[in-house]
Amino acid sequence: MILCVANQKGGVGKTTTAVNLSAGLARRGHKVLLVDLDIQGSATASLGIQVKEGDASVAECLTAERQIEHVLRETATPNLFLAPAGESLAAVDLQLASAMAREEVLTRCLETVTEKVDYIVIDTAPYLGLLTMNALVSSDHLIVPVCCEYLPILGLKLFTETLERIRTRMRVPCHVLGYLLTMYDRRERITAEVEAILRRKFGAEIFEHPIRVNTRHKASPSHRKTIYEFESSRGKGVVDYERLVTEVLQRLAAVATVETAADTFAQA
Ligand SMILES: Nc1ncnc2c1ncn2[C@@H]1O[C@H](COP(=O)(O)OP(=O)(O)O)[C@@H](O)[C@H]1O
Ligand SMILES: [Mg+2]
């Protein structure tokens, strides 16, 4: 099961969500691989993983078409593994341009590891280059964080149009599991406005519980910690990401039930 956290806008909570969703799933006993596909390597840094010169990373896997399985690193969270970004990832976007079936390189690199973990979560860069295309194409489901601090409508329109193009051109599902409201502050007027517009447009596609604005989400990455290691179990951030993990698992189970029913119907 491959989940991709994507939105071509930067600073909306993609990395925070990818890291803490992965950690939350791992803490429930699932084996999870977080793939850092952002050239800034923020997920790698916030988990306290260093990529030294000569260390293999996602970048080398993509350029040499090597299996991601070979670059896994353990993290401080049991069951959570990381495929680190690496400095050379910035050049990969260009190098991919000349690869065979260039939007499907990551899909091929993930082949062997998909059998070995329960969930793969991909953190993506804030632009729709080839790296992000590869992430979208390889994924079963997308989680789209939307920041409630400004009106995101134009950017989201562009993003959903891109998804539609990928679906028809590449014939991959690119299914949105849910839009996630982030930096949510009930007292702010802008939050209410963004929420009203999005709930009207996307309805039940929006996750029920938002991720509230919380300075601890800003502080935890610099301490190289997930929110679970940084806050108590009753902390606001832990509560929010726990709710998200529960809802993600519920939605995945619901999709699986519908798919099984469709298969049974097709065979009948
Ligand atoms: N719920 C939140 N409340 C407050 N700050 C947040 C929250 N989520 C993320 N942040 C902070 O906002 C900034 C952008 O978040 P990040 O997850 O890096 O976004 P992206 O990956 O989309 O660029 C970071 O400094 C992060 O620590
Ligand atoms: Mg990021």
Question: Would you give an account of this structure?
Answer:
The protein is α/β, with parallel strands linked by helices. It has a single domain (2-267), classed as Rossmann fold (3-Layer(aba) Sandwich), CATH 3.40.50. The chain is 47% helix and 14% strand. The chain has helices spanning 14-27, 42-46, 58-64, 89-96, 105-109, 111-114, 130-138, 153-170, 189-202, 215-219, 227-230, 236-267; strands spanning 2-5, 32-37, 73-74, 80-83, 119-124, 141-147, 175-182. It has a seven-stranded mixed β-sheet with strand order 3-4-2-5-1-6-7, with helices on both faces. The mean pLDDT is 94. Bound molecules: adenosine-5'-diphosphate and magnesium ion. Adenosine-5'-diphosphate is lined by residues 10-16, 42, 126, 182-183, 211, 213-214, 217-218, 221.
Order of helices and strands: EHEHHEEHHHEHEHEHHHH
Question: Which CATH architecture is right?
Answer: 3-Layer(aba) Sandwich
Contiguous helical run count: 12
Estimated radius of gyration = 18 Å
How is the secondary structure organized here?
Blueprint: E1 2-5, H1 14-27, E2 32-37, H2 42-46, H3 58-64, E3 73-74, E4 80-83, H4 89-96, H5 105-109, H6 111-114, E5 119-124, H7 130-138, E6 141-147, H8 153-170, E7 175-182, H9 189-202, H10 215-219, H11 227-230, H12 236-267
Parallel strand pairs: 1-5, 1-6, 2-4, 2-5, 6-7
Antiparallel strand pairs: 3-4
Helix pairs in contact: 1-12, 3-4
The structure holds adenosine-5'-diphosphate and magnesium ion.
Magnesium ion is lined by residues 14-15, 38, 42.
